[in-house]
Structures are given as structure tokens and as C-alpha cells.
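Re: that backbone. C-alpha cells:
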């Protein structure tokens, strides 16, 4: 017990016998103690009186202790640390006796880079989601959701703690406009106004899960001002390379939604967010997925407001359950109703169903109740009355009102057929459309299928014009100027087999990583080729080394070679004064100092950031050739 004396800690606090110190901070300590009456070990949070400078501060901290006890008294959930007692120890100050959780704080595990599997990380996220949703159902907003306020027990279960600045949504415990919380995990409205509701907790939880899964903050910065600015004004950063085992498109869709600057655009619950994130995970077995979904059950303690579902296994809308057990049995029955296989996946509830949305052709944008949710093919839960809309360039939009029980195999999109006037200067040119000569000369009206790519060639004596049109593109009444035919490159003969593969050929000064229709095709060097089936493809290009990322739609014709053009490279020289710092390009470390060193960048807009010992400064530049950048730091 001499150690306690050396630490200036009491041997007893209230009726509790102090055993040892668990942790200490600027404002207080946490000790392990035992309740002698029932032999239960508890963690006691004890405030340091010498850290309180004024009577007002003392009153504020006493109110926080009391508030945490009162709020925790309203909550009864296995994922929330329970508060047993509150009091004041003479000579030491107020204390809270709470549930002791043997384990580690989540922030400690994350800082140490603990080797957690994807399933373990998702288990942590699911546990915290359940705890937060329980608090929100009780009208409690935590306001300080962060890894440091989560304990991961030795059994792997996660507990949410520290409701010291929590508030009831029907109460005003702090003055409007006062910011409370931790900057890196605060929501935009929390930063701007200090006025929050449960949707602010959902944003903070999204930041926590982003960092837990990727090891990076979505809004990084070396100063509080930089972090706060990015949270309020900028989208979350792109993770490169993508998080292993999670579809990049799914990752972006989920986090763009839950980290939206507008509270009304976020997921309705923390569980809904985690469910949709699970839908983007590809390296989970069926049993693991079922286990994680089982953790995300709806609490039966409070009515749930109606939610329009746009995510996997969304919270069901039901009347207030007669009892907690009956409510949980109903949700369990819903979870078990998922059917394997293609087509439709139905939850046998009164409203929700899961639909495999396919279109002919694929690649159509999908909207549910005017909200973009992805592109075909995709899985999407729907409720009775949801309005589904598919849009694809060159095709008529297709609308569908969902009715449970209907199961169309795929949505066939109708191409737009238009009459297009082909006009040339000079007039009188012969017209070849898709390698087929047409009768007549310009000006000439042709039947144009906007759902297909087209090749238009006009010739008159030694003059010619040729152009490719992607699906959805039309001449639109333009007049085409004919030029010397010798200046036009000869077009290779079309393939005899209409199903023969086409070829993409990389044209540029640097190599890129290529994805086609979501499938990784590996690295492509300059001049290299990539065979692809005929049709229109979504091509994603990335080169972290050259700070380049682009997504585009390309049409490949059978037997033809389609150039894949990259922007040219330019030299950018970066110099700051009076001091220098580390240079970052678009948030990525460039490996040089701002001492007049140079680097190669592709043409386009880039954000150049310099981090020095005395500050950080960013400049956005348009690179169209070799350029020097010099600014004060």
C-alpha cells in the first residue's frame, strides 16, 4: 500500500478499498478498487482537486460527474460501462465507481498497430454501434465518441464509456455554440455551432470506424485548425492502397454517406452504417457475416422512428415491442430469412426485401427515392413503396415501384433512337456510319441509336472527317469541317467476328494500375496493351507515384485498338521562405523538401502542402507545363 501513498492516493474511497492505479491524466486518476460488501471489483474515477483552478471549474467538473452518473442510470446495455455509485471523498474530490473492464482502451490498440483481423475490427464496430443506438433510443447523445472512450475487453467485447459531456436530446446542458468533444472526431455541426443530436454521434462513429479499418484518419492534419477545416469543408481522404478485403467503391459509398457534411444525409443509425459497410466486405465467410449481423439487433427498450431503408439489412420499422425478448426474436427471425443465390433476397417481414438489381446493359446508375445508391449489377434492400430509377447514357430512364414478391430477372433498358442531321463544310460528303456507307450526301438525316457507340466518317474527294461517339453522345446539329484526308489516320478494317476482343493501348509517359468494371487488371506500362470484350467499360486508372487518379468510360470495338491516353508530365519546383518543410502533393508525401527541389506531376489541378517546424501551408495550382511555386511559410 506504500505505492498508493507515493502516488498521493487514498487507501479507501467511500466504502471501496483501493487496490492499485489503473491510469492517470491531467484532470484525475482511475484506480482499481473492491467493494468489501459484495467483493466486486470496480474502477473508480477520481478528480484531482489541485487541477481545478477556480470554483467555477470545480462546479463544472462536479456537474460532469453527476451528469455521467445520471445519464448512465438511464442506460442498461451490455455494451455500455455501468455506473454503480457517485460520491465525494474528503480531501480528494468527487468520484465515480463504475464497472471494471479488464482489457485495453481502443485508442491504445490502434496506436500500437495491433494485428486485428477484419472480423475483429468489425466486431468492435458492431458492438459500439449497438451501444450508441441504445443510447440514442433513450434520447442520449454521447458527444465524445472516440477510440479513447471505448474499452476492448479480454473477451473481445467492446464497452462504450465516459458519458461526462453527454446530453439528453430534450435538455440543454451546455450553452449553444460551446464546442465540447475531441476535434479529430467532431462533426461539422458540432464544430460550427456546438449544437448536436444523435446524427453527430453517427458522424463521430464513422470517423472512428474509418480509422479503425484503414489505420488512417479521414481528415488528417498536423494542427487542430487544419483538422477542423477539413472536417467542415473537405471530403474524407482516399485510402491508397484500398483497405484489404473491402470493395473500394463500397468503401467510398458508405463513408461518403456517414461522413456527409449534412446530418440529414447520413445513415439513420450506427447499426445501419455498419450493415452497409459489411455489404462491401468480400473476405468474410457466411458464418462470420451471420455472426456479425446478429450483433446488430434492434433494442426493444424504445420505439424506433420510421426509417426509409437504403442499406443492407436496414433497421426494420415495427411497433413498440410487447417485450424485449419478443422484439429480439422478431429481429433474429428477420436475419435468418436471407436466402442465398441470385435474383431476389427477401426478408419475410412486412416491408423490407433485398433485391439483386441487374440491367441490360450493365453499368446503369441506380437511384432509390431519388438517392443515388450505386451502379448495376448491385444488391439493394427495398421497402414497399420505394421508387427505383435506373439511368444510363443513351437509354431511356427506367422507373419501377417496388412491390414485395415481384421478381423480375433483370431490367432491360430501352435505347433512345433519334433522327440526327449530319451537316458538313463543304457539303456533299458521303457518310459512313459504323463502317456502313449510307445513301445520300450531306446534309443528311440518319437514324441514331444513342445506346451504342458509333464511328462517323465523312469524305469528299481528298477531304475527310472521322470521329468516335460514346453511348449517349450525338452529333447534336453540329457542322463537321472536312480536312485533307492525308491528315486523318487510316482506320483498320473491322473484325470479321463481332465478338472478337478489342484492345486498350496505354499512351503516356508513365505506367498506371488499371481496374476495368471493378476488376483489378494489374499494372500497365506505357505502350502496353490490354484485351477487353467489345462494349463500354468503366476504367479506373491510378499511379500513386505520379499523384494521378482518374475514372472514365471507354468504348471498345471488336478487333479494334483504342488508345488509353494519359495526361503529359510537367516539372514542378517548390520553394518556401524563410524556412523549408516537407512537401505533400494531394495529401501524399512527395519525399522532398521545399528548398527548390522539383518533382514530376501530370497536367491538372493539384494541392501542394508544405509542413514546416513553424506551420503548414497549402496552395492549389493548375499544372499545364513546367512551373515554379514559391510562397512564404
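Recovered sequence:
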Amino acid at each position: 500500500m506504500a505505492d498508493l501513498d507515493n502516488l498521493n492516493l487514498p487507501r479507501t474511497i467511500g466504502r471501496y478499498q483501493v487496490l492499485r492505479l489503473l491510469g492517470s491524466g491531467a484532470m484525475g486518476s482511475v484506480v482499481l478498487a473492491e467493494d468489501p460488501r459484495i467483493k466486486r471489483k470496480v474502477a473508480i474515477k477520481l478528480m484531482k482537486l489541485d487541477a481545478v483552478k477556480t470554483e467555477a471549474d470545480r462546479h463544472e467538473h462536479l456537474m460532469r460527474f453527476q451528469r455521467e452518473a445520471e445519464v448512465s442510470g438511464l442506460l442498461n446495455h451490455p455494451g455500455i460501462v455501468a455506473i454503480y455509485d457517485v460520491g465525494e471523498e474528503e480531501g480528494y474530490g468527487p468520484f465515480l465507481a463504475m464497472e471494471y473492464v479488464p482489457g485495453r482502451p481502443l485508442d491504445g490498440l490502434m496506436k500500437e498497430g495491433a494485428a486485428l483481423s477484419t472480423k475483429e475490427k468489425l466486431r468492435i464496430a458492431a458492438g459500439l454501434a449497438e451501444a450508441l443506438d441504445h443510447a440514442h433510443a433513450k434520447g442520449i447523445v454521447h458527444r465524445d465518441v472516440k477510440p479513447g472512450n471505448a474499452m476492448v475487453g479480454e473477451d473481445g467485447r467492446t464497452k462504450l464509456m465516459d458519458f461526462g459531456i453527454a446530453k439528453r436530446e430534450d435538455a440543454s446542458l451546455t450553452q449553444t455554440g460551446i464546442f465540447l468533444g475531441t476535434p479529430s472526431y467532431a462533426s461539422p455541426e458540432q464544430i460550427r455551432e456546438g449544437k448536436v443530436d444523435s446524427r453527430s454521434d453517427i458522424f463521430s462513429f464513422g470517423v472512428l470506424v474509418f480509422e479503425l479499418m484503414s489505420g488512417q484518419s479521414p481528415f488528417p492534419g498536423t494542427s487542430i485548425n487544419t483538422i477542423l477545416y477539413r472536417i467542415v469543408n473537405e471530403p474524407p481522404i482516399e485510402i491508397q492502397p484500398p483497405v484489404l478485403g473491402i470493395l473500394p467503391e463500397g468503401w467510398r459509398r458508405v463513408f461518403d454517406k456517414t461522413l456527409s457534411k449534412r446530418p440529414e444525409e447520413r445513415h439513420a443509425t450506427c447499426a445501419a452504417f455498419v450493415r452497409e459497410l459489411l455489404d462491401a466486405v468480400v473476405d468474410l465467410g457466411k458464418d462470420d457475416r451471420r455472426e456479425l449481423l446478429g450483433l446488430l439487433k434492434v433494442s426493444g427498450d424504445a420505439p424506433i422512428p420510421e426509417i426509409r431503408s437504403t442499406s443492407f439489412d436496414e433497421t426494420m420499422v415495427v411497433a413498440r415491442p410487447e417485450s424485449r425478448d419478443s422484439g429480439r426474436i422478431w429481429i433474429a427471425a428477420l436475419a435468418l430469412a436471407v436466402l442465398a443465390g441470385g435474383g431476389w433476397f427477401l426478408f419475410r417481414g412486412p416491408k423490407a426485401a433485398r433485391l439483386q438489381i441487374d440491367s441490360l446493359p450493365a453499368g446503369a446508375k441506380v437511384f432509390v427515392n431519388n438517392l443515388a445508391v450505386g451502379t448495376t449489377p448491385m444488391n439493394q434492400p427495398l421497402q414497399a413503396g420505394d421508387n427505383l430509377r435506373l439511368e444510363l447514357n443513351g437509354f431511356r430512364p427506367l422507373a419501377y415501384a417496388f412491390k414485395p414478391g415481384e421478381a423480375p430477372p433483370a431490367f432491360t433498358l430501352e435505347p433512345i433512337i433519334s433522327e440526327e442531321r449530319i451537316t458538313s463544310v463543304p457539303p456533299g460528303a458521303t457518310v459512313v456510319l459504323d463502317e456502313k456507307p449510307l445513301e445520300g450526301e450531306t446534309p443528311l438525316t440518319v437514324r441514331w441509336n444513342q445506346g451504342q457507340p458509333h464511328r462517323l466518317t465523312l469524305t469528299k474527294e481528298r477531304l475527310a472527317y472521322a470521329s468516335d461517339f460514346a453511348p449517349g453522345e450525338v452529333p447534336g446539329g453540329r457542322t463537321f469541317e472536312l480536312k485533307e484526308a492525308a491528315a486523318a489516320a487510316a482506320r483498320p478494317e473491322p473484325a470479321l467476328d463481332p465478338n472478337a476482343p478489342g484492345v486498350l493501348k496505354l499512351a503516356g509517359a508513365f505506367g498506371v494500375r488499371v481496374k476495368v468494371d471493378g476488376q483489378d487488371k494489374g499494372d500497365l506500362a506505357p505502350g502496353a496493351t490490354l484485351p477487353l470484350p467489345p462494349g463500354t467499360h468503366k476504367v479506373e486508372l491510378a499511379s500513386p507515384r505520379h499523384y494521378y487518379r482518374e475514372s472514365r468510360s471507354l468504348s471498345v470495338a471488336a478487333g479494334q485498338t483504342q488508345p488509353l491516353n494519359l495526361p503529359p508530365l510537367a516539372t514542378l519546383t517548390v520553394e518556401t521562405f524563410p524556412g523549408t518543410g516537407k512537401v505533400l502533393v494531394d495529401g501524399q508525401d512527395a519525399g522532398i523538401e521545399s528548398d527548390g527541389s522539383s518533382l514530376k506531376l501530370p497536367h491538372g489541378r493539384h494541392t501542394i502542402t508544405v509542413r514546416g517546424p513553424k506551420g503548414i501551408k497549402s496552395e492549389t495550382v493548375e499544372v499545364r507545363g513546367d512551373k515554379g511555386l514559391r510562397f512564404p511559410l
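Residues 169-179, 298-352, 486-496 have pLDDT under 50 and may be disordered. DSSP finds eleven helices and 42 strands in the chain.
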